[in-house]
Amino acid sequence: xxxxxxxxxxxxxxxxxxxxxxxxxxxxxxxxxxxxxxxxxxxxxxxxxxxxxxxxxxxxxxxxxxxxxxxxxxxxxxxxxxxxxxxxxxxxxxxxxxxxxxxxx
Length: 105
Ligand code: HEC
Hints:
Blueprint: H1 3-41, H2 43-46, H3 58-69, H4 77-87, H5 91-103
Helix pairs in contact: 1-5, 3-5
């Protein structure tokens, strides 16, 4: 292989590794954000380690949160309170919380 192709190959591998490390860091960052939100906003009602939510997929956790958020007739005050909390956070926040819960065992 010519020197030039080796250089190009090296750059491609470096770029690939760079992107892989970046996205892993981004994922950890989101979980850290989610953890902060969860501890502050959710743990009081759902405990530190909510048995029914641990390790569930991010999508299904977000769907469940959305479902509670969109209930037109919340069955009790607790659910109403949870709705108020969800009203105040962004879709991105909800997803970060889901990423955090998904990573818990
Ligand atoms: C004031 C208490 C309260 C707060 C605060 C609260 N929740 Fe809830 N949450 C409830 C209650 C009550 C239910 C309905 C009963 C149940 O499924 O446990 C519920 C249901 C849920 C469900 C659906 C569970 C299922 O299996 O369908 C999810 C997911 C959830 N909460 C996540 C959260 C997250 C994330 C937060 C923080 C942003 C939060 N909750 C804050 C009380 C609360």
